[in-house]
Design brief:
This protein is mostly helical. The chain is about 75% helix and about 0% strand.
Length: about 200
């Protein structure tokens, strides 16, 4: 059964969980998507703890949806998951965190070991991460969410589906978000090649 789960599509796994209560199918879905999904939410929220909390809420919601027989194969599972996650974050964001968030699209690198060159490079990466985080926090939420989806590897069409915005609007948000990001980084003395 494990080999079958590995070769099944996400949609097949979700339907097996919904229709037959196949827990290994749900476990495989979770294994496939948990890290990328939490990273997307962390990029959107700017806070790993909030991202993990929202992720947990979404996975519990998926279990509930399956128990009610509510999952339908209308979109790719990944698109469905990220849409629910985005909406759950926005609900949380609007309710609790609208005025206090800083919203990075990357997490700081951690430096291990005693090598001075590694430590210096790690310190430089942390400074760059901090500058990038501050630059991103200055973007409007609509641009930040498009950049977070883009960083997670989603296509323009998927970004439009997840955000509920027309394709041209998504392209515009990405274009202006990147332009503002480059300007903010340039003002901080960081060129694109330095990242």
């Amino acid at each position: 059964a494990a080999d079958r789960s590995m070769s099944s599509t996400d949609e097949e796994l979700m339907l097996r969980f919904q229709d037959r209560g196949d827990l290994p199918a749900f476990d495989e879905l979770f294994r496939r998507h948990k890290d990328g999904f939490v990273a997307f939410l962390a990029n959107l929220a700017g806070d790993r703890a909030i991202a993990e909390d929202v992720s947990q809420q979404v996975w519990l919601k998926l279990i509930d949806v399956a128990r009610r027989g509510g999952y339908q194969r209308r979109a790719r599972f990944r698109t469905y998951l990220y849409t629910i996650g985005r909406n759950a974050f926005l609900d949380e964001y609007r309710r609790k965190h609208a005025n206090t968030r800083s919203d990075p699209l990357i997490e700081a690198e951690h430096v291990d070991g005693d090598d001075a060159a590694t430590a210096e490079g790690g310190a430089l990466a942390l400074v760059r991460s901090d500058v990038l985080a501050r630059a991103l926090s200055g973007l409007p939420l609509e641009q930040r969410e498009v950049l977070a989806l883009w960083a997670a590897g989603h296509s323009i069409e998927t970004m439009a589906e997840v955000t509920g915005a027309p394709r041209d609007t998504v392209l515009s948000r990405r274009k202006y978000g990147l332009r503002k990001l480059r300007a903010a980084l340039g003002a901080a003395g960081i060129e694109q090649g330095d990242l």
